[in-house]
Amino acid sequence: MKITGSYQFNASAVKVWDALTDPKSLSHCIPGCEGLEPQGNDEYQAVLNVGVGPIRGRYTAKISMKDQVPHQSYRLVVQGTGPGGFLNADAVITLVDQNGKTTVEVDSDSQAGGTVARVGQRMMGSVAKMMMDQFFKSMQKRTAVKKSG
Q1: What is the DSSP secondary structure assignment for residue 1, as one 8-state letter?
Q2: β-bridge partners, 44
Q3: Which of 5, 38, 77, 99 has its CA 20 to 30 A from that of 60?
Q4: What backbone torsions phi and psi does residue 122 show, to the nearest 5 degrees?
């Protein structure tokens, strides 16, 4: 399943990069995240409480940030398992800085299996896109430049 997105940030690529690679920021912005523990080598162990349609559950996921070009791009690899099945995702995240504002482009591909894939097949794409949109909306708020008045 392919999912793409483009998100505008009113912050520099350096600030957006720092937020996208900071475990504390990530744990606050990932929908359903109950915990995110660094494992070293830009790898994290996450606990997520998510659902697709009537299938809800607690999932553990290994999240890796690979092929990093600081402030420009990285590859995000997610391998998650839980009572409803599994999800594997691979996404390329690209940051484009223009005059202190940043566009983040996401190009991802994922596979799911188990009950969650069988029951929620028709909803998986829209749920995944909605979760990605929620994540970036939360991240946009977190990186917003505060105006003094």
Answers
A1: -
A2: 38, 63
A3: 5
A4: -65, -30
